[in-house]
Amino acid sequence: MSRHLLIAGACIAALSLAACGQKADPAATDTVAADQAAMPAADVAPAAPAAVTMATDFVPMAAASDMFEIEAAKVAQTKSTNAEVKKFAAEMIAAHTKSSADLKKAIADSGQTMTPPAALPADKQAMLDSLKAADAAGFDKMYVDGQVVAHQVALNLMQGYADGGDVPALKAFATATAPVVKGHHDMAKMMADKMM
Predict the structure, then answer these.
(1) Residue 28: pLDDT over 60
(2) 155: phi > 0 → left, psi -120 to 50 → alpha, else beta; which?
(3) Taken in order 85, 117, 108, 49, is the CA torsion positive or negative?
(4) What pLDDT is recorded for position 19?
(5) Does the predicted model carry a pTM greater than 0.85?
């Protein structure tokens, strides 16, 4: 099951890269490949596009990440029977609702006229639909494994934009948000390790 999530995550990263029209830095690609080769298969997470530096690319990706986290957490709160998973899901709803508000504020502060998307992109909607369709026995593992992947992709996105983004207010948002996302990733990873 987690292998399917990893494949889906890799597809998301590839589609996001293609959609952004960005070319991955060959050195960054080599580094990711080397890191993945050094990790067990269960720990491999796809990289977000390394070169997301344009606000017009960053905003929809960051907003979609928050939307997906909130919706996936709502599913977890209704389907999970694990108290730790339900607690994590509640934290994800609160944190990603705040992050969405912070992103909107950063857009306003920047003077940009961008509007975050109102609906999930097709790839994230497909992941959410798979989560909703999961059977009760495998749900918690599927959700938690997906959270590890989703938060790694989001962390790569935030760190990349914080390093090279084109709009200072959005760079500040990405810089402030990255450690929070890292904390979520680490929590999800600890839960996933317990479920192995």
Answers:
(1) no
(2) alpha
(3) positive
(4) 38
(5) no
- What is the token pair recorded at 18? 């293609």
Q: Hey, what amino acid is at 132?
A: K
Identify which of 30, 33, 4 has the alpha carbon closest to the alpha carbon of residue 126: 4
Q: Is the pLDDT higher at 69 or at 7?
A: 69
User: Which is nearest to 162 in space by CA: 6, 31, 58?
Assistant: 58
Burial class (CB in 10 A: 0-12, 13-18, 19+), 176: middle
Taking a C-beta distance cutoff of 8 angstroms, is the pair 48, 160 a contact?
A: yes
Query: In the structure, what pLDDT confidence band is assigned to residue 51 with cuts at 50, 70 and 90?
Result: low
The mean per-residue pLDDT over the stretch 8-20 comes to 40
Over residues 51-71, the mean pLDDT reads 95
The correct CATH number of 2-195 out of 1.20.1260.10, 1.10.3210.10, 2.70.70.10, 3.30.470.20 is 1.20.1260.10
Domain-wise residue ranges, the chain? 2-195
The distance of Cα 79 from the centroid of its chain, to the nearest Å, equals: 21
Burial, 133: exposed, middle or buried (Cβ in 10 Å; 0-12, 13-18, 19+)?
Answer: exposed
How far, in Å, are 33, 40, 68, 80 from residue 44 at the CA level?
A: 10, 7, 20, 25
Are the beta carbons of 52 and 58 closer than 8 angstroms? Answer: yes
